[in-house]
Specification:
Number of domains: 1
Largest sheet: 8 strands, mixed
Oligomer: single chain
Distance between the termini: 29 Å
Strand order of the largest sheet: 1-2-4-3-5-8-6-7
Shape: globular
Number of strands: 8
Low-confidence stretches: 55-60
Mean pLDDT: 91
Radius of gyration: 18 Å
CATH topology: Aminopeptidase
Number of helices: 10
CATH architecture: 3-Layer(aba) Sandwich
Amino acid sequence: MQEGPPYHRFGDFIAPAADRFAILSSLMDELDLGFSVLTISGCRHFLLSPGPRASPGPVFRGPPPVIPVAHYDRVADSPGANDNSAAVFLLLETAMRLREEGVQNWRIIFTDKEELGLGEGVTDQGSYSLALGLRDTELRDGRFYIFDACGVGDTLIISTTADHLMKNEEGPGTERTRLLVQQLRNAALETARDLLMDRVLLLRTPFSDDAGFLRAGIAAQTITVLPSQEAARFAALLRKQPELADILINRDLPYDRRRIYIPETWRSLNSPGDSRLRLTPEHFKRVVRFALALCKG
C-alpha cells in the first residue's frame, strides 16, 4: 500500500466497524482540505473546494469546473477496498496535488449511499437526490466524472454504460444530456491521449453514481480500472456476445449463471473478497495523473 498522507488512514477506513464519515472528515481536516457537508434526503455528501470551505452554491469564474466524484459508502460485510475506498483516497491525493499547484477550477464530491439495498432503485441512490439539489446551484454546469473501483489494474476504462442507461429515455433535455455525456467522454479520451496512456478502453461497466446523476438530468461519465488481461478478454467477449453487457447492470448478478463471464475484479466487488490484498497500488499514480489532468483541463 502507498505510504504517507492520505494513505496512512486507509487501514482505518476499511476496518470492519469503521465510521467512514467520521474518518473521512477528520482526515480532510488533518490534510487541511476545504470541505463542507451537504445533507440531502438523509445522505451526507462531502464537497471539497480549493478554498478553505466550500458552499453548496459557489460562484465560479471561467468555464464550468471539473468535478470528480467517488462514493464513500460500502456494502455490509465487505471491506470495500476497491469499491470504493481506493478511488476516495486517490481523489484525496488529487486534491492535495491540485492545491499544491494552485489549480482553482475544480470541486470534488464524495457521495453517500451509492450502494442500494434490497428493493431499492436508481432514485434511491444518494447521487440522485444530490443531483436534483445541484440543479439549483451553479454546480449544475460542472463536468462530472465518476471514479469507481479504481484500485485494481493498469487499464483505464472509460465507461459506455450511460448510453445504455439513456437508451430509452425521452423528453426535454435528454438529447442535451446525451450530447454532454459524449463531450465528457471525448474529453476523457483526449486527456488520456495527452498523457500518452497506453492502456485505455471504452467498455460497458457496472452502473455507479452515474445512474443517479443521469436520472436527475445531469450528465456524468464513469471512469474505472481493470487489469489488462481481464479488460482485453471482456472486450473481446462483448464483441462476440454484446448481449452479455446487460448483466453488468443486473441487480441479481450474484445469482446469474452468466456472471462467470464478468471480469474477476468486478465479481469480487461487494463481497468479503474486496480486500486491500487485491489492490495494485503500483498503478495508483496512473489514476491520480489522469484525474489531475482532467481538473487542469
